[in-house]
């Protein structure tokens, strides 16, 4: 029996204009509107699974970060199905468990290890100043301790942002292109750094939308989570489309297929 040949890892990502971040969110909204009920059910199951994993005894703190890329990959598979004119199913959410479970779980393990490393580096950088401030005492010591805490928070925020860059495209690259987990995270971070301004704009837009979604008792998350999945799919297509042979128009767009080449005149 012939084994399928693995796809080669894609090369460096292409250039993306900062204003395209809004187009990605618009593409995510269009994908959501194609099957809003199914997307909302997927989002509800997504929230329930991540929350339930967080409450597991002993290992709950580790289970949710590991499972996150698997569920995200499933939603991306659903976005790709809609983009190809197929029907969205609720069980698309678990498509990652059927197609690339080991590699996606490895992405989750790297995600968890990155979080632990960021926390340890932040604690080491800010903890020394806090201990020194506590030893000095008085007002100067209090100021040094507070500065150490702020330094630790700043270091963790920077490292967490870098980790999110590595995680952003990784589920899509593993699920939709078959890239190895660590290579996918490296390529994702490279893509985000290469197009840093576009992803800063996207992060600001998502931050605002997150607060809006939380206003109606958090029910807006049933819409925002699928929209983010669709935006991620659109961003993946545009960032890597020149390299993977994908259509260059955003997901859910109105692009028309190219006409077939005309036949040569017969003698």
TrEMBL record:
Keywords: Membrane, Transmembrane, Transmembrane helix
Segments crossing the lipid bilayer: 39-59, 66-82, 102-124, 131-152, 158-180, 192-213, 219-236
Stretches for region Disordered: 247-267
Domain of life: Bacteria
Sections of the chain in a coiled coil: none
Composition skew (Pro residues), residue ranges: 257-267
Name listed for the protein in its UniProt record: Membrane protein
The organism of origin for this protein: Thauera chlorobenzoica
Organism phylogeny: Bacteria, Pseudomonadati, Pseudomonadota, Betaproteobacteria, Rhodocyclales
């Amino acid at each position: 029996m012939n084994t399928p040949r693995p796809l080669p890892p894609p090369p460096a990502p292409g250039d993306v204009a900062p204003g395209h971040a809004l187009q990605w969110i618009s593409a995510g909204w269009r994908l959501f509107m194609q099957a809003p009920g199914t997307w909302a059910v997927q989002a509800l199951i997504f929230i329930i699974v991540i929350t339930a994993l967080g409450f597991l005894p002993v290992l709950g703190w580790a289970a949710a970060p590991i499972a996150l890329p698997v569920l995200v990959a499933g939603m991306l598979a659903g976005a790709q199905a809609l983009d190809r004119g197929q029907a969205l199913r609720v069980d698309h959410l678990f498509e990652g468990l059927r197609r690339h479970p080991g590699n996606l779980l490895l992405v989750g393990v790297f995600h968890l290890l990155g979080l632990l490393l960021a926390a340890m580096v932040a604690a080491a950088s800010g903890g020394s100043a806090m201990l020194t401030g506590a030893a000095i005492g008085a007002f100067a010591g209090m100021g040094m301790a507070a500065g150490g805490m702020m330094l630790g928070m700043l270091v963790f925020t920077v490292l967490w942002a870098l980790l999110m860059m590595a995680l952003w495209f990784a589920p899509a690259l593993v699920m939709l292109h078959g890239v190895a987990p660590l290579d996918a995270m490296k390529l994702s971070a490279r893509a985000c750094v290469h197009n840093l301004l576009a992803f800063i704009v996207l992060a600001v837009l998502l931050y605002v939308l997150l607060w809006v979604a939380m206003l109606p008792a958090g029910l807006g998350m049933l819409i925002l989570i699928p929209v983010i999945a669709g935006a991620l799919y659109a961003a993946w297509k545009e960032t890597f489309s020149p390299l993977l042979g994908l259509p260059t128009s955003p997901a859910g767009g109105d692009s028309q297929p190219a006409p077939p080449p005309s036949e040569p005149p017969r003698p």
